[in-house]
Amino acid sequence: MSIRYTDSSEMRLSEKLWQVNWSMIMLLCFIAAIGFTILYSAANGSLEPWAMQQMIRFAVGVVILLAAAVVDIRFWLRSAYAFYFLSLSLLVAMEIFGASGSGVQRWIDTGFFQFQPSEIMKVFLVLALARYFHGTDSKNVDKSIYLVAPLAMTAVPAILIMRQPDLGTATMLFVISGVMFFLAGVRIWKVTLLALGALAAIPVGWQFLHDYQKKRLLAFLDPESDPLGTGYHIIQSKIALGSGGVFGKGFLLGSQSHLNFLPEKQTDFVFTMLAEEFGFVGAFSLIGLYMLLVVYGFSIALKSRSHFGRLAALGLTTTFFLYFFINIAMVMGVIPVAGVPLPLVSYGGTAMLTLMFSFGIITGVHVHRNQRISQYQTGQME
Amino acid sequence: MQREHTRIKGFSRRAVVLGGGQALLLSALVGRLYYLQIIESSRYVMLAEDNRISLRLLSPPRGRITDRNGELMALNRPNYIAVLVPELAPDLETILSSLEGILSISEREHLRILREVRSKRSFVPLTIKENLSWEDVAKIEVNAPSLPGVSIEVGQSRYYPFAEAAGHALGYVAAVSKEEQGTDPLLRLPGSRIGKDGIEKANDLALRGTAGHRHIEVDALGRVIREVDRNEGQSGKDLALTIDSGLQKFIFHHLKDMSAIAVVMDALSGEILAMVSTPGFDPNAFNEGLSTEAWHDLVSNPKGPLINKSISGQYMPGSTFKMMVALAALEDEIISPNQRFFCGGHMELGDSRFHCWMKEGHGAMKMVSALQQSCDVYFFEVALRTGINRISKMARRFGLGAKLGIDLPGERDGLMPTRDWKLAVEGSSWQLGETLNAGIGQGYVLSTPLQLAVMMARLVNGGVAVEPHVIRNLVNEESILQQSRPVLPSLGISPASLAIVKQGMDAVVNTSLGTAFRSRIIKKGKKMGGKTGTSQVRRISERERESGILKNIERPWEERDHALFVGYAPTQKPRFVVSVVVEHGGGGSKVAAPLGRDILLETQRRVEAFPGSGAPRRDG
Q1: Nearest to A287 by CA among A31, A29, A21
Q2: Hey, are the CB atoms on B25 and A243 less than 8 Å from each other?
Q3: A366 dihedral zone (left: phi>0; alpha: psi -120 to 50; beta)
Q4: Which residue among A121, A270, B99, B445 is the one 20 to 30 A from B274 at the CA level?
Q5: CB-based contact (8 Å) between B228 and chain A?
Q6: What is the full DSSP assignment across B544-594?
Q7: Which range has the top average pLDDT, A307-316, B84-93, B582-591?
Q8: How far is CA B203 from the centre of its chain?
Q9: What mean pLDDT do residues B487-513 have?
Q10: Among residues A297, A338, A302, which one has the least CA distance to residue A320?
Q11: How near does any CA of chain B get to the CA of A317, in Å?
Q12: What is the DSSP letter of B335?
């Protein structure tokens, strides 16, 4: 069996579009539509102020997705570091200029829309690590000296984000990076050791946490102890979820959501609202659809002929998985309230656009699946 | 190429592990979802309902109180309250200052409002001022555009149209104190009122009714979204009194400027037709909230405006007690009615000399003439022979010396002393001189004006043990049962003895030598009988007696005698009895008897004017 490699530079745009995994995009649209429905309900049956905005953003997102998908995969490989450093410098800029603000500074106001450097960092860290491991010989990947650079690449933005303070995203960066190490072939015990090292750093990190973050963690351990304070969100979310039952209370009829017992129902707790109004059936269906997307991601990664493509596709797929897993676990009271949105459904601009961009890269990996890229071919095109 | 191949193999293996890990995490997530939404669902459904539905109590209207003719004596009036919803008032200070141009808001109230604005949620209306006049309401309505967030709410407030005239019998309502809160949730409602005295207190439970409720849907802040259901509760029961409000008012205005008490009773049924104690108080003032100074004035006034002296005031009955002495002697056949005793103006007992009010003496006295002229020496002799124990026992049968159990709070016992009582309480033996004093209703003997009225009723109704009451029936169904009163028991006094005493009381008023002759009623068929009394508040020393007793009017107010009168009418077929006590008023015949006459005349006139109103109900 001979492997047929193709040079995607020879592919025309129409050819590339033909290669786009349209069924996956339909799936994205379907999940986004579920989001519009819930945002419509969250506004008590109105397109304003959330659903309409979200639709526009999604439409822009689809364009971004297609654009990212048709760009030559080698462009992303080549410019991975550049984008990474751009994101990093934005984070540094925020650290410098944002300090005078309210204390919680996560986004930059571009005038057109507010955007969070920490969100795009999640994408470009994956791409940067993918490039790094793409270029690292499998013999060397296990040598500790080769792990210093990717560790630093992870730690620097993570610490900056933690100082914003955004604990959820910082943790996610570490987890994604760990997954990338694992996929790159770093020995399990080393990954485990790193994970343990991160755990050991928790008491140190605790010192750097803001009071409200400490409270959130403590309230997570025993939410009922402080029913009017920080535990309130978790308790109300569980009540909303539980009272949904099998089939839910019906569209627009969730009492917990509509009477404002549920906090931030259009953003972090949107899953709760879905589960309250559409019950176990609705919530399970959404999880099923997410799972289907993850399966797409895996299949694309496994079919890619380039190591960069494989790592990028699976890294981004895992990021996506972490997104919805953390969010759903959070609203069910399994993990602390971390401020992670539900992908494609939660109201929010940057998250939606970066997510669509991620799927653009994944689609790009699919479109360019037969493009062979040499391990040493990172600097310039042949 | 080979290297690339191992890389793919390693990657694929690890991808499968990663996928497996993700699948595992997801199943845990779905498991948790299943647990929350299916296994534990019913618990959370309940919790969500608890969240959503809030129970609010509704206070039912308090039962109204009417007089015997259906005239309203206590009712609920709309209470116009200016309220402010802070979230609708953008500029609180400006609005408050423009409100102050319309209503008078004290500095203290101003601070209270600002405090409440800070402590309450911004959508909760807070009271600016209660009991607004129509004029104030109109002014606020007119200025509404410049007063955003201010509105008028209508509450209920208790109103007593007879004000001071009926304050004691009705009592009043006021804010619930901590001790009174008890278990009824109604009393915990803000602005709830409880009966503090009189009928309002004695029948508080019936008047209060039972709380209604409404289930309302609220949001997370407690803001009302809509009403789910509503139960109005049971409004308080209306009460009808035996009081004739017109008579009550008439008597009050007669006694207004004195410190006096009058009780009018139906001698056959025991219904209290009027019960006046002056000075009075305005029960409306309590509902609106009394200032500290006003409260202090009421409490410290020596004339006791807050006290219903007709049941709580205890007075030496003076000569009005002589009927009891007479009956005790007659019933035990100690003396015969025609037995004569000579009055020389005083009586010697041991070293002491006991004076008759008539310095010169009455001469030979029989029972009827002794009552007629209220001869003290005669009753000294009779009391001496009868003994204190027999006298007290007889008086008790007529309702003196113990609570009668009237349906009002605050009733006092009075006192009918016995030898044993003195030994037990004072620790010394009873002196004969004390029997003499008791014989003319002085010394230890004490009675309330109500007791004196009951005594009169039992004397003139043929010796039947009527019991006084002020509640006619409960208007609602339950009360119908109460209408059939048990047949009243007889006291077992011989009609002959009663006839003698009645003859004496007739003579007091209707013969020229009687002490109340000047107060007689000439109108045919409306004549009255009765007995005057003057009770000494302080002992008169021998020295004073020699230097000439100061006239009543020359003494300081609190040392003057109490003037008493007990009467009945009409003499032929007695129906109504009255007892009058004028505190430090002077002589009974001069001061109290004319009041008794006016009251009995008015009582009879009113019965004529409202034929049904006076009719005793004797269904049994």
Answers
A1: A31
A2: no
A3: alpha
A4: B445
A5: no
A6: HHHT-PPPGGGS-GGGSPEEEEEEEE-SSS--EEEEEEETT---IIIIIHH
A7: A307-316
A8: 10
A9: 91
A10: A297
A11: 10
A12: S
Domains and CATH numbers, chain B: 56-241 (3.90.1310.10), 245-281+307-479+487-609 (3.40.710.10)
Round to the nearest angstrom and report the end-to-end CA distance of chain A.
26
- A310 close to A302: Cβ distance less than 8 angstroms: yes
Confidence class of residue B478 from pLDDT cuts 50, 70 and 90? Answer: very low
Q: CB–CB of B379/B370 below 8 Å?
A: yes
Q: Are A185 and B11 a contacting pair at CB < 8 A? A: yes
Residue B1's pLDDT band, with cuts at 50, 70 and 90, is: low
Interface contact flag, B48 A321, Cβ < 8 Å? no
Residue B410's region, left for phi above 0, alpha for psi from -120 to 50, else beta, is left
Q: Is B45 on the interface with A (CB under 8 A)?
A: yes
In chain B, whose CA is at the least distance from the CA of A260?
A: B220
By Cβ distance, the residue of B15, B19, B219 closest to A260 is B219
Burial of B261 (0-12, 13-18, 19+ CB in 10 A): buried
Cβ-based neighbours of B289, under 8 Å, separated by 6 or more: B174, B175
| Residues in B touching A243 (Cβ below 8 Å) | 41, 44-45, 47-48
The answer to whether A353 and A57 have CB atoms below 8 angstroms apart is: yes
Nearest to B225 among A259, A280, A375 (CB): A259
- Count of helices and strands (H, E) across chain B: 23, 20
Beta-ladder partners of B272: B265
B550: left (phi over 0), alpha (psi -120 to 50) or beta: beta
Residue B611 has pLDDT above 80, yes or no: no
With a CB-CB cutoff of 8 Å, which residues 10-29 of chain B face chain A?
10-12, 14-15, 17-19, 22, 25-26, 28-29
Do residues A297 and A312 lie in contact, with contact meaning Cβ atoms separated by under 8 Å?
no
Q: Do B18 and A302 touch (CB under 8 A)?
A: no
Number of C-beta neighbours around residue B350 at 10 A? 8
* B477: number of Cβ within 10 Å: 8
Beta strands in B447-545 (DSSP E): 471-474, 529-535
Measured CA to CA, the distance from residue B363 to residue B342 in angstroms comes to 5
Bridge partner list, B77: B157
CA distance A179 to A74: 23
Other CB atoms within 10 Å distance of the CB of residue B364: 13
H or E element, residue A107: none
Angle ∠(A208,A332,A125) on CA atoms, nearest 5: 50
Tell me how far apart the terminal alpha carbons of chain B are, to the nearest angstrom: 122
Find, among B258, B304, B267, B63, the residue nearest to B170 by Cα: B63
- Cis peptide before B190, with omega less than 30 degrees from 0? no
d(CA A320, CA A327) in angstroms, rounded, equals 11
Asked whether the predicted pLDDT for residue A378 surpasses 60, the reply is: no
Mutual orientation of helices A270-303 and A22-42 as an angle, nearest 10°? 170
Site of tokens 């003895």: B497
ipTM of the complex, rounded to two decimals: 0.89
B557 in reach of chain A (CB within 8 A): no
The counts of H helices and E strands in chain A are 16, 2
Q: CA B81 → CA B149, B176, B211, B396, B525, distances in Å?
A: 14, 20, 22, 53, 55
- Helix, strand and coil percent figures for chain B, each rounded to 5: 45, 20, 35
How close is the nearest chain B Cα to the Cα of A305, in Å?
9
